[in-house]
Amino acid sequence: MNQKEKIEYIVGKGGGSYTFDDLCLILEILRGEGGCPWDREQTHESIRGSLIEETYEVIEAIDTNDPKLMREELGDVLLQVVFHSQIAAEAGEFDISGVANDICEKLVHRHPHVFGSVKADTSDEVLKNWEVIKSHEKHRDTVTSKLRAIPLALPALMRAQKVGKKADFFDFDSADAVLEKLKEEAAEVSEAAASEDPAAVEEELGDLLLTVTSLARKLGVDSERALSRATDKFIDRFERVEQEAEAMGKHPSELSMTELDAIWDRIKHEKM
Questions:
Q1: Which of 90, 169, 200, 264 gives the lowest tally of CB atoms within 10 Å of its CB?
Q2: Residue 246's domain spans which residues?
Q3: Going by C-beta distance under 8 Å and a sequence separation of 6 or more, which residues neighbour residue 102?
């Protein structure tokens, strides 16, 4: 089909009956001659941030248990996958069929307990097999190579926790041992702060945060989620502080730290 025929086909289908193939065709149209000027200008690099943003919006839909929003946000992520594939197809690199083929091959290869003769009766056995197969595929024979393979673009807390998990044989004996290490790291942060050396402060704070992720892992807590929830809790409590300040006819910044602390402590001990 030429561009005009493609547009007529898409318009003729109407809403409610579009398929994945139609999505791919729409991207072809938007990127094609006479398509959308903005879409035609985009590159992998220019829409990189959109992929990250849309992924986080899916996570938010999951966390809020909103199926309708999740469906919409998954569609936005799917759009990004097709968009990148279309850009690559135009450059003669790969297309969406190749993307689908590769993931199918990967799933079959990494599930030999389903598609082959390997025995794996528990989730732990499945994950162990998965990591062994993945290491062979990527030629990652050393622990260091596996650590370096963890994406640099991951949120720092998540990346740190993944690194710690893969090197768990080089680890603290218990959560109590990590807590002792935290005291040591906190003291080093204090020393660095006293030195007024920004580079030293950054380094020691980094060590402290890394140790926090070790504690989270020992306690079976996702550090990224824990920090996110703590941030939400702070915002909720701050909203209460702001409301109480407004009731006093003031902006929160006009209250003394003593007044703010008193309001905060009271809110903290109330049930939210």
A1: 169
A2: 225-268
A3: none
